[in-house]
Amino acid sequence: MTQGASVPIVGQVLNDRYEVLEKIGEGGMAVAYRGRDRVLGRAVAIKVMRPELAGDAAFLARFRREARAAAGVTHEHIAGVYDSGSDGPYHYIVMEYVEGQSLKERLRQEGALPLAEALRIATAAAAGLEAAHEAGVIHRDIKPHNILLGREGQVKVTDFGIAGAASSVGQTDTSTIVGSVQYMSPEQARGEGVGPQGDLYSLGATLFEMLTGKPPFGGGDRLAILHKHIYDRPPRAGETRPGLPPEVDSVVAHCLEKDLSRRFASARELLSYLAACPRSEEAAAVPWAGRWRRQLAHALAGAGWWLRQRGVWLLAAAVLMAAVVTGLSLLASARGRATMVKVPDIEGMSTAAARELLGARKLLYREVLTKPSEDVAAGCVLSQVPSSGLEVAAETVVKVVLSTGPSHVVVPEVTRMSVTQAQWNLEAAGLAGGRVREVYHESVPKDYVAVTLPEAGTRVVRGTAVDMVVSLGPEPGLPVGPSLPTGPGSRQGREYPLDFTMPADGSDEGEREVVIEVVDEDGSRIIYRGRHGPGERIPQQTIRVVSATTARILVDGKVCAKRQYLP
Questions:
Q1: Within-domain flag for 3
Q2: Are residues 64 and 179 in the same domain?
Q3: d(CA 140, CA 188)
């Protein structure tokens, strides 16, 4: 059977297992079918790659890698990936089947959703993204089409693996790969790599559409929309939907920040803000005046029936009652307007100054998170919700994220290592290799690191470049002592690799400090320090042995293993 042959697939059984029952949808990369797994006897969704993509070997290789990675992510809000394979011209992925409709279909039917429902769907999708991101899987194409709504209220993010494979064909080839550019992050629109924050931007655009009935950027052709994502300020959801709680409006705005440093840093951070959002527009947007207006209106409507039963002579009483209602309503509205204040910009301020300024505006201050920052000093406000410039009711709580300042790490011991080995250790510690300078050195062998700047043990800002001084060996022309033997036992010694993998004991303790200490006739020294989780392999170390040497591996200060070497 030739690639791309026009053969009906409905009714076929792929690899004698997956029966294709009916077509249920299609996108830029694949056609979706409802199917049945004959082995496990369950309904499945089968996504079959389009022929023009199935003929691309690079795409298929990337597709299989992404599918394997996605299959390793299990979460209640992710449509699971069960299997992938090929059968003749068909290259497919088998996924969890969710009976219901996509979020896009619901938006087409209903338009903007109730606030509580929009926040419920966004929260579920963010929780699914958090699980995927923690597993190292980026979706790259979050949009209403890829969020499924089950008949019993389930929310499932789908197409992990398929969207990820698209990047092998080209980020900006939107006509054949992405299918829609209305939810694309600025960095993806520029053709750059997409990380977790790219998914959060796309989820913010999706939440914008759930709240307003349309995506933030529309109109024009694809290139025009891409240009808007990169350069234009996104509209405020509250401008289209008056009465939207300012907390919700601010969350959407933070998701749609073009500057990554101002966007939510992780799905977990986004979830903390979504949890604090009001679920009722009435409670947030309709002040005391509005509630009294409605109650009086209901009372007047009930009184109208009573008046009609008793004749025209009570018309004067009805007019008087209407006047009272109108007067109270106007008075209450005036009071409601008088309580609205503009949120000041407190980002970058100290906590004391921020509290004082908010208090002067009759707003409340609350710290919700702390987060490292390379730009904002420790103890100062890194971000705020609601954002500055919004008008909110007096006594509204302004939630702030405080900066803990730049994150610091310890420079590891990399002397007497090769430059390559030293750079690996520096990168594993969160640092960068800096300039390399060569000098003559009497005791450090040629091509090995003699000293680092800053020195080992120094606490520096994560990402700092560490310069290395590499030995050229003894300076030529200087008097040297008797030549030493070069065999076993000589000072030149020999090198041994040291590999170590953290025990996978099933505990949930997270990362732990690993230290490798070497002890020989010259004393003890630390050659590696880093943090690793269960089952994680540390970067391979090289030990130069010139005498009987013992390497001790300590985990959180306790000896976990020993290695002994002879020259």
A1: no
A2: yes
A3: 8
pLDDT tens digits, 303-331:
444 444 455 445 555 555 655 555 555 55
pLDDT tens-digit map of 346-372 = 998 888 889 999 999 999 998 888 888
Q: How confident is the model over 171-185, as a mean pLDDT?
A: 59
Phi/psi region, residue 342 (left: phi>0; alpha: psi -120 to 50; beta: rest), is beta
C-alpha span between 363 and 33 (Å, rounded): 54
CA–CA dist 1, 11 (Å, integer): 17
Which strands make up the sheet holding 549-555, listed edge to edge? 523-532, 512-520, 549-555, 558-565
Q: Decide: 20 and 13 in contact? Cβ < 8 Å.
A: yes
- Residue 177 sits in a domain whose CATH number is 1.10.510.10
Reported as a single tens digit per residue, the pLDDT across 536-555 is 788 878 888 888 888 889 88
* Of 16, 83, 141, 345, catalytic: 141
- Residues 129 and 200 sit within 8 Å (Cβ to Cβ): yes
pTM beyond 0.70: the answer is: no
Instruction: Flag whether 4 is in a domain.
Output: no
Backbone angles phi, psi at 90, to 5 degrees: -95, 125
- 378 and 526, same structural domain? no
pLDDT tens readout for residues 398-442: 888 888 887 778 888 888 888 887 888 888 788 888 889 888 887
Q: Active-site residue 87, yes or no? A: no
CB 497 within 8 A of CB 527: no
Residues 466 and 350 in one domain: no
